[in-house]
Amino acid sequence: MILGSYVPGTSVLHRAPVWLKLLVLCALMVGLFWFRSPVTVLCGAALVLVGCSVSGVGVLEVGTRLRPMLWFLVPLTVLQGVWVGPVRAVVLVGSLLVAVGLATLVTLTTREQDLLDAVVAATRPLRPIGVDPERVALVLALTVRSIPVVAALATQVQQARKARGAERSARAFAVPLLVRTVRHADRLGEALQARGVDDG
Amino acid sequence: MSVVGTGGRPRGVRSRAGEQAGGPAGPLTMAIESVTHRYGERVVLQSVDLELSERRIGVVGANGSGKSTLARLLNGLVVPTEGRVLVDGLDTRTHGPAVRRRVGFVFTDPDAQIVMPTVAEDVAFSLRRTGLSRAETAERVAAALDRFGLAGHADHPAHLLSGGQKQLLALTSVLVTEPDVLVCDEPTTLLDARNTRQVAALLDDLPQQVVLVTHDLDLVAGFDRVVVVDEGRVVADAAPGVALAAYRELVG
Ligand SMILES: Nc1ncnc2c1ncn2[C@@H]1O[C@H](COP(=O)(O)OP(=O)(O)OP(=O)(O)O)[C@@H](O)[C@H]1O
Ligand SMILES: [Mg+2]
User: Fold this and answer.
1) pLDDT of the residue at B89
2) pTM (2 d.p.)
3) Burial of A167 from C-beta contacts in 10 A (0-12 / 13-18 / 19+)
């Protein structure tokens, strides 16, 4: 998971202001996809590697987070290879990998709270049209927090299904997971209320 | 287990910013007056009358007897269909927010109660409306985490904590707001024996008034008062010795 995984540290990357990190990230992404050349991909990859070592996050940490992308990057490479030729395919896929690698570096070195604060600041101008920035940030935070919780629920359901020998039944997975997730949402709502979320 | 409830220990630091500086010095009174509560057709609490002002109050009863519903009355999470609940004179029906500021609530499942991704953020979330500066908030959060032995985990994602640590975090996040009362609905049910003892010892030492719902009768043996609930009614309400004996007889 890209979110919910801050790696504590004191490097330049950790200490840089969030808005600056996001701005640079945006600029780099635009650059990557604007030029889409082998040179930019290589530079980008180098940047990711440098970032990994400077921040102390480690190549491995970023690598494991990129691995799930292989599921669609491999077929994409093949398809693109057939359509536009191998070089452009590799450049495109490389750009994607570098972009996600850079984004991962930013999230790994930024406290969620700081990211959320940046989102609040960015959505503040939308207040006149009825957007509540605090509410937006809360929803994002809850989402980040709920990912590991729901993942744990899925593991539990998976194990229960195995224990009862219904390993292959998709229904024996989906239905209990849905039930548990809804129950969790109920409890979460109650807890938010108890902590005064709607009390103004 | 030490009987903290009777000590008349001076109340802890009560520096709630800008709010009723001269609040009640002793335990406050929670009055449940002629309360009947229904979910649809189903009556889950029937003609309950209780005046709770002891420092340590236990609530026990069988599954489905209505304990959680009773506990949720105390901070206005549940507003009764009939009757009323007054906390320190405030009706939960009309003064929910003020009541919730006085009454902290700890649930059974800390996973549902921890709403922020990392440990320190979750504690800070409790302080978001206090008007404290960032630095002050960070200071209070650090002090609270330190007090409950979580200082080393401040920046860790909440999901990496053990079950016991999660419950400690849930407690920390509630206590950092310095409520007058702490209502706990089976806070140790998901914990192992060691973590149960740790949470129990922690509750024991709190300056706050505590209402504890539990199936673990040992936890309330040293309390000031124990209320036994059965099928939506209060069937015993006395010192632990008497009340727990009545409960044991009830469940056979
Ligand atoms: N939100 C709800 N909607 C409908 N029925 C409910 C709701 N909450 C509780 N009940 C019902 O009210 C009754 C009392 O529930 P309550 O949770 O207060 O019991 P409890 O004493 O806490 O039980 P346990 O020991 O299992 O936690 C139960 O029969 C329950 O099914
Ligand atoms: Mg209950």
Assistant:
1) 95
2) 0.78
3) exposed
Q: Are A57 and A6 in contact (CB under 8 A)?
A: no
CA distance A3 to A94: 22
Any B CB within 8 A of A145 CB: yes
Nearest CA-CA distance, residue B159 and chain A, Å = 6
Contact B229, B66 (CB under 8 A): yes
Pair B180, B209: CB distance under 8 Å: yes
Q: Which residues neighbour A183 within 8 Å (Cβ) at sequence distance 6 or greater?
A: none
DSSP letters of A152-164? HHHHHHHHHHHHT
* Ligand 1 environment, Cβ below 6 A: B 39, 44, 61, 63-69
Between the alpha carbon of residue A51 and those of residues A14, A21, A37, the distances in Å are 11, 12, 21
Please, what are the domains in chain B? 3-109+180-251 (3.40.50.300)
Tell me the average pLDDT of chain B. 89
How confident is the model over A119-123, as a mean pLDDT? 84
Average pLDDT over residues B83-109: 96
| ipTM for this model | 0.83
CB contact under 8 A, A111 and B114: no
Tokens of A54: 């400077």
- Which residues are in the CB-under-5-Å shell of ion ligand 2? B 68
Q: B44 C-alpha to center of ligand 1: Å?
A: 7
Which of B107, B115, B159 minimises the CB distance to A148? Answer: B159
* Nearest CA distance, A5 vs chain B (angstrom): 7
Is the pLDDT confidence value at B17 over 60?
Answer: no
Give the Cα separation of A165 and B111 in Å (integer): 28
Residue B222: what pLDDT? Answer: 94
Residue A59 and residue A68 in contact, taking contact as beta carbons nearer than 8 Å: no
Decide if pLDDT at A88 tops 70. Answer: yes
